[in-house]
Fold Plasmid replication initiator protein.
Amino acid sequence: MEIRINELDLTRAGIISVQRDLAPSEISWETEYTIGEVMYRVTGSAFHGRPHGRDADVLLALQTLFFRAGCPESNTIELSAAQLLAASGHSRNGQYYAGLRESLLRLSGVKWTLVRTQFDEKRQRHLGATTTTGIIAEMEVMDQATGSHRPFEQRELSEASPIKISFVPSFASSIRDGFFQILDGELLSRLGQPQARSLYRVLQAHRVTAAGSLAGELSFKFKDWLAACGLEEERLDNSKRTLEAAHERLKVEGYLDEVTITGRGRTGNIHYRFSLEAAPELVDVLLERGITRPVAEALAADHPARIKVALRVVDERLETGWKPRSLPAAIVDAIRNPKKWGYAATESHEKTSRKEVVARDRAQEEEAPSEPRETVLAFLKLHLRRSPSDQALEALASLSEAGVTALLTALKQEKAEALQGAEAILMVEL
């Protein structure tokens, strides 16, 4: 029987879009796609807008903090805005406090119906299940506005703002089962770009097979994979660029070994091959300690050198009479957080060198514009020391993809040559 975990369904259904930005008007959607032999139909509604981009980081932080709090039976956790931002890996400044409130609203307001069905050869009929659910049952935050005009708009959280979150029961149960911990928090923090982090979440969810193991390879029809990631089929070029940027990031980090796209456009196929394989003997050791197979395989692949050391540290504490609320949870935490448990983390030289490559470029890449036209606009502002004229912006909007590429190439030259080249392409007075 296939594992039925709300957290996995959430990700498989593409509820949190991989896209970096979405319009607030994006409050409902319906999509159909097939992954393997399972057909999905997702109908979603989001009163405050569909979750996307960094919302996935906020949700993962909420799950982590709920887990660390011992998964209260009330399904409720109370924390501060500063705690939540710190756990999500985001900066603690005014911009992010304002964004945090919006993320929480989107996560609390989303609800969806998921129809999963598979053809049963023996019975000659489609069998499956229909589930209607959400993530947050109730939320309360103490927020504020910077001015007296229109006080219900432009509200934000402060560092000490208390937040009270109550998860829906099925989602809280999935956290207790530890399934969200198939994600490597260290890898997520290194990825930088929201799109890469979101794609990693979706890939990990779809890697979980019916037997609970993590697949080493995955293949999808391209149009189905776009739907599963919450990307727009109508804007195929933009969606492909989003995926390509995320692919490169995941390759640099050693998570993906190869990505192959065959065929043309929506009718093509995409194939993923993953780099890291779990050593069976390490997986068996973790299974004996009560850790679920997907989490055990993820840990054995992500941090093989830590497992025996972490187990020894946990065993030493147990010998002193220490009684954790959940031994499997404690073991997972010890492997994921070596500093917290007082031992030195060791990684392979290959993985360390990848970290060094990413660290060198992370600051520039994390906030880099994701669209070529945005990149062109950033270069224009840099060279002009002001915003381009309305005429230039109109010309930029009407350029073909080839024209945008040529303009971007011209702008990467020295300032004088860049502006001359840009003016020649745009044919307007900058």
Summary: Residues 348-370 have pLDDT under 50 and may be disordered. The longest helix spans residues 349-366.
